[in-house]
Design brief:
0% strand; mainly alpha; globular
């Protein structure tokens, strides 16, 4: 019986959210750092696969390797926490101040890990800046510009578009976190998590931690992107969209429909006293 039913999965979400909200700042930063770096590895792998095959779907098929490693190692990814840690606050197990603090530290850890991996990849692909970008480095530069300047060119419509893409992305990413809880076995967790992650990446939706790697790495390699355009036209709206998509469409919707029933106090039925019963009968 490897399959875990949805109602039990929601209980596991609450347990995981409560546990994650109780982690120390040190653990949040270390596990967040590793998650950011692993998603960077997965993203550069996916771009390499796309470049080698000229088939974007191949890149999407291999991208989930990073997410799977994060899930199996119990690391911290802020986009996944948007669904499970927020539930600990909604369910009353943790204060919303605790939830906000947790998400902030994980976000910071993800950012540091993503940028560190990006810098190491920059060294590897450009011989520490002595060679012009070629191959996958060119794709990283193009992606960084498209994810910032591309939206800025459309003004308000571009801002709405990037936000909606982020909502759709984390609806699937958080579903990947939840689906991994639907199995006891390692291979079951891998397969279940793979499906939603493939779905989001193949359609080009916006993931805040992936972009923590892509955009600054592209900037290192010569992308015509400013720090302000990175944050204004991508990082901030994408993070907010990821929060909305993960918390509402995955976390809260599943919680509302499969939420464990609250235990009700047992109220004993007390029979009336004999004198009271006699009085009632006489009065009738």
């Amino acid at each position: 019986m490897d399959y875990i039913k949805p109602a039990e999965v929601v209980k596991n979400m609450l347990t995981a959210g409560n546990m994650k909200a109780g982690l120390s700042v040190k653990d949040l930063l270390i596990r967040g750092f590793l998650s950011g770096a692993l998603l960077g590895f997965a993203t550069s792998l996916a771009l390499t696969a796309t470049l080698q095959t000229n088939i974007p779907l191949v890149g999407a098929l291999v991208f989930p390797v990073g997410f799977v490693m994060i899930v199996l190692l119990g690391l911290e990814l802020v986009t996944g926490s948007f669904a499970v840690v927020t539930l600990a606050g909604v369910d009353g197990q943790r204060s919303f101040g605790n939830v906000f603090s947790n998400l902030t530290w994980v976000f910071l850890g993800n950012l540091i890990g993503s940028v560190v991996y990006g810098y190491l990849l920059y060294i590897a692909l450009t011989s520490m800046g002595t060679e012009p970008p070629t191959g996958v480095a060119v794709k990283i530069v193009a992606a960084a510009e498209a994810k910032t300047n591309g939206y800025a060119a459309h003004g308000l419509q571009g801002m709405i578009t990037v936000f909606v893409k982020a909502v759709l992305c984390n609806w699937m990413v958080c579903l990947g976190v939840v689906m991994a809880m639907s199995s006891h076995s390692t291979h079951g967790k891998i397969i279940a998590a793979w499906l939603p992650i493939l779905t989001f990446f193949a359609q080009g939706f916006e993931h805040s931690v992936v972009n923590m790697f892509l955009i600054p790495t592209g900037m290192m390699m010569g992308a015509k992107v400013t720090m302000s355009s990175w944050w204004l036209w991508n990082q901030i709206p994408v993070t907010l969209g990821n929060l909305a998509g993960g918390m509402l469409f995955t976390g809260l919707f599943l919680y509302w429909t499969y939420s464990p029933a609250k235990a009700q106090p047992n109220i004993a039925v007390v029979a009336p006293e004999p004198a009271t019963r006699a009085f009632a009968e006489a009065s009738s």
